[in-house]
Amino acid sequence: MKSLQSQTIKKLIELRRDYHLYPELSLKETHTALTISKQLHAIGIQNIKVAGTGVLGLIEGGKPGKTLLIRADIDALPITEDTGLSFSSTKPGVMHACGHDGHIAIGLQLAEALCKRKSSLKGKVKFLFQPAEETANGAEKCIKAGVMKNPKVDGVLTLHLWNSEPVGTVVAGSGPIFAGATEFTITIRGKGGHGAMPHLSVDAIAVAGQVVTALQNLVSRQVSPIEPTVLTIGTIQGGHAFNVIAPEVILKGTLRAHDDEMLRFLQERLARIAMGVAHAMGAEANVKQEYLCPPVVSNSAVSDIVREAATEVVGKAKVKEPKPVMLGDDASLLLRQAPGCYFLVGSANAAQGKDKPHHSPQFDFDEGALEIGLSVMEKAALKFLS
Fold this sequence. Notes:
The protein has helices at about 5-20, 30-40, 100-115, 140-145, 205-220, 260-280, 300-315, 330-335, 370-385, and strands at about 45-50, 55-60, 65-75, 120-130, 155-165, 170, 175-180, 180-190, 195, 230-240, 245, 250-255, 285-295, 295-300, 320, 340-350. It has about 375 residues and is an alpha/beta fold. It has an 8-stranded mixed β-sheet, sandwiched between helices. It has a 4-stranded antiparallel β-sheet with strand order 10-12-8-13. It has a two-stranded antiparallel sheet with strand order 7-14. The chain has 2 domains: about 5-175 and about 295-385, Aminopeptidase, CATH 3.40.630.10; about 180-295, Alpha-Beta Plaits, CATH 3.30.70.360. It is elongated, with a radius of gyration of 23 Å. The protein contains 9 helices and 16 strands.
């Protein structure tokens, strides 16, 4: 792999660490958006729009051509950092634990690289620094604000640093790579009473236990074992005293699938099971479901471009086909607006202890992945526009 200039690599790392110091939660990325906007102005991009806490910059090439959108997510997570890094989060309870700080750095350095060659650049490049990926509502807000229009976007590129693969590898290919995701809330209402006289009450906790058990059969017995699906109950809240029958329990969780039709099937069955079990036990269940984002599906033609670029950067042996996982990402909404590719850049380094999972308080990545991500993204962008 031909390395970038040392000054570029140094700047990548500096930017990543600066943004790591000052993380902000979804839709609260005020400082992050302001500094991104200033950085874009400094490198010569004047066409900048800020929609809420998102930033959109436009480079107009000197020659006519297509319009490419490059997306980088910018929000952090409600996690207390436990890395011991010299540039650890300065905000208690908030941390860049998913690599978005690295995505910002790559996006800014790519904008600078393309801006320097805009006179010979074909077409236009939009840089979307997107808020609220972690809550899966940032992309929709950006689309409603018009990021895919004026000029109309012809293609989308977005990447994710990936601690499930070693640094030096790139994962890219067509088809689904991340799942569609929903959030559900099941409110079970029984009848409260004395803990010593349960026969006079309807125990919402006991009903909730049966609902949880029944829902496990949805994936294990009502879906083909070769169909990737997930049902997770993330929280259970109910009761307030050891000797009181709880009148209400609230369950919250998520459904995941790589197919829209399957996701709709899971939602319908979940509601039927929850309400049916509760009714059979003398309680009621109210089910609310929110469709967060569809599956992330990469376009074949654009993915071929990315794989070609990645091969030039890391070599053919280090470019892998994606194995779909059940995580979600609202970049899927952008990819439904225009053909594109969502690819992963290996960022783990077990020897250095930088292989902790995403969303972990100990999460960190090998910063060598920044150089690879930038190189692949730049080559792919130029190939798409050529």
